[in-house]
Write a structure and sequence with these properties.
By secondary structure, the protein is an alpha/beta fold. The chain is 30% helix and 24% strand. The chain has a domain of 69 residues. Strand 8 and strand 9 form a beta hairpin. The longest helix is centred in the middle third of the chain and has 14 residues.
Length: 297
């Protein structure tokens, strides 16, 4: 990982067309609805670049999501969506640019005028504020649903087993699986396993939740039970950033839809703007192939 020069954007005077606290060129999400009353979970991604070998996967991506906002990222396979998501919790190290959550750098600290990667224990501490739900459920097969949910609060946050168990049962109830608390992953359907994974991500009380195509590994009839849980979360005030191919879901829950292609954000806007009246030809071409003719906003 090369050392990245830190740009102290917060001390600069906004330019014309630039809002305070959002660097020029940043794609700003619209403010979260007032009824969410979120006070934490501001995500700012600034000019992030990432390469794998000679292939540049992210080409200077900038995006801001306000506290309680719901950003849904769509686009063709290989466009960099999942890689961008993984940089937010430093599962992928960036090669340029930087990411902050509530103003705190993710994965790095400033020394002098350069960014230096944090120690692993400090990165792990940061990740307790960033919940992530993967395509594959990644549950521990030897633990019950409840044990999967309470493992991280006990180990990472040193909560008592009794406190973690009480909270774990509340979360399983929230995702409709309290009656399956003692079931092992092999005894659960794919949709149920993914709902346990969501409860596990919530158990650390994260500032933001990241979803990396959470329904792609599910049989079609199980997709809605997972999407319904995420729809409820979207109303809760937790900042959500979701990568998905489910266009109807994106339309229903997003404050901002972000369309990516070839490692760049082509355009972003409200669901109405992006689905009904996209500005860019590449966006129109993509949606013409993936959206049913009867799909209406």
């Amino acid at each position: 990982m090369s050392i990245i020069a830190a740009r102290k954007e917060s001390t600069t005077t906004p330019q014309a067309g630039e809002s305070a606290g959002v660097p020029a060129g940043t794609t700003a999400a619209r403010p979260a609805p007032a009824d969410k009353k979120a006070t934490r979970g501001q995500v700012d991604i600034t000019n992030v670049r990432k390469s794998f070998g000679a292939t540049e996967v992210l080409k200077g991506v900038s995006l801001s999501v306000p506290p309680g906002g719901v950003a849904v990222i769509v686009g063709p396979s290989g466009s960099g969506k999942s890689t961008l998501l993984r940089t937010i919790n430093h599962l992928e190290k960036v090669d340029g640019g930087y990411i902050t959550i509530d103003g705190e750098l993710v994965g790095y600290e400033v020394r002098g005028n350069k960014l230096h990667e944090l120690r692993e224990k400090d990165i792990l501490k940061q990740r307790t504020h960033i919940g992530m739900v993967f395509q594959s459920f990644n549950l521990f097969p030897h633990l019950t649903a409840l044990e999967n949910v309470i493992e991280a609060p006990i180990v990472a946050q040193k909560r008592s087993k009794a406190e973690a168990r009480k909270r774990g049962l509340e979360l399983l109830d929230r995702v409709g699986l309290k009656d399956r608390a003692d079931a092992y992953p092999r005894q659960l359907s794919g949709g149920q396993q993914q709902r346990v994974a969501i409860a596990r991500a919530l158990a650390l009380d994260p500032k933001i939740l990241l979803f990396d195509e959470p329904t792609s590994a599910l049989d079609p009839e199980l997709v809605n039970e997972v999407l319904d849980v995420i729809r409820e979360l979207a109303k809760s005030g937790t900042t959500l950033i979701v990568v998905t191919h489910e266009m109807g879901f994106a339309r229903d829950v997003a404050d901002t839809v972000v369309f990516m292609d070839q490692g760049q954000i082509v355009e972003s806007g409200t669901p109405q703007e992006i689905f009904a009246n996209p500005r860019e030809e590449r966006t129109r071409s993509f949606f013409s192939k993936v959206i049913e003719p009867a799909f209406n906003i």
